[in-house]
Amino acid sequence: MKYKTSDTSQYTQAKEYIDTAIIPLIPFSFVSDQEMTQLSLQKEMTQIYIDQIEKELKGRVFVTPEYYYVKNDKISDEKLRLEEYVNHINKQPFKYIFLITPDNKWRKITKDMDVDLIWIPVIKEGNLNQSETQQLIQSQVKEIQSLIMDSWNE
Amino acid sequence: MTDKKNQVSRRQFLNYTLTGVGGFMGAAMVAPMVGFAIDPLLKGQKDTEFIYVMDVSEITNEPQRKTFKVDQVDGWYESQVDRTAWIFKTEEGNILALSPVCTHLGCTVDWASNEQYPNQFFCPCHNGRYTKTGVNIEGTPPTEPLHAYEYKVEDGKLLLGKAKKR
Ligand code: FES
Fold it and tell me: What is the pTM of this model?
């Protein structure tokens, strides 16, 4: 499910089945041209991953609106806001919460939170339409999917 | 004097334009409602489109997964989307192309993916199951069969159209 009317109205009717929230954590920056290019590519990739996963597992996962933040070396500054965001999402009866992000800095600070972090390996530059890239994404999506399914079956 | 009368004052002008915009917004409000009312028509793949998916000679009794691209019009957006079908020949020798979208809440089902049920379609989300011909198995969450694609055969080629409720 996505955050749009047709899906949310379905969600509210069938909450007991949709017990997994996926929160995209997306860094952005307008400081240097290079970083702008890189991070927008990362955003696009993350979006593709999430769309694929959502398509496969639509009936059990809910993709929340993106959590955007300014890319910063001191990611600990973001911790409080993320915690608040997660608490807010938890107002609905989700059992599993996955954070999906291209930014591996999150690892440390989400350790003590009741969430699972999924890090998406990113390409530095390049073309998302290349068939190698697409294949790479396809196989990674399968991995992530089974990761999510494993936690359901635990 | 008469001249002045004909001149549109600034306020009047603003008034005219604002009403104009108001009228326009009014129209915008109505349009989506019309859209909702006739939604099934606006939405979905362009009608009558049949896409080549595989040669008939390649179709086996074992369901094969095939992906193809269709143009989809979804309200405002027109885009190319991937569709998937499970294609096989039934015992009676008919072609069946099933949509993998679980009729429960829309996850993607897989053929024989659960070891315990090697001859069924299985949905990983809430363990929904379907027989080989796509009929939902009682006691599992789905309440209706998997949808089946309309198809055509032309010169030994299988073309698929829309997935329809059965
Ligand atoms: S979405 Fe397939 S069983 Fe619930």
Answer: 0.82
Distance B102 CA to ligand 1 centre (A): 6
Helix (H), strand (E) at residue A23? strand A20-28
CATH of residue A95: 3.40.50
Helices (H) and strands (E) in chain B, counts: 3, 10
| Tokens of residue B69, six digits | 């691209």
Question: How far is B100 from B65, CA to CA, in rounded Å?
Answer: 9
Which pLDDT score, from 0 to 100, does residue B13 have?
Answer: 65
Model ipTM value: 0.88
**Class of the CATH-defined domain B51-164:** mainly beta
Dihedral angle over CA of B30, B36, B37, B42, nearest 10: 110
Alpha-carbon distance A11 to B81, whole Å? Answer: 24
- Residue A104: partners with Cβ closer than 8 Å, 6 or more residues away: A119
What residues of chain B, 94 to 123, have a C-beta less than 8 Å from chain A?
A: 102, 104-108, 123
Q: Is B152 on the interface with A (CB under 8 A)?
A: no
Q: Ligand 1: does its nearest atom lie under 6 Å from the Cβ of B125?
A: yes
Q: How many Å apart are CA A24 and CA A43, to the nearest integer?
A: 9
Domain range for A127: 5-153
**A125-135 pLDDT, tens digit each:** 667 777 788 88
Q: Identify the helix (H) or strand (E) that includes residue B163.
A: strand B157-164
Chain B CB contacts of A60 under 8 Å are 105, 107, 125-126
**A147 interfacial to chain B (CB closer than 8 Å):** no
* Count of structural domains within chain A: 1
Phi and psi (nearest 5°) for A121? -65, 135
Q: Which amino acid would we find at residue A117?
A: L
| Amino acid in position A54 | E
> What is the distance between the alpha carbons of residues A79 and B33, in angstroms, rounded to a whole number?
42
The domain locations on chain B are: 4-42, 51-164
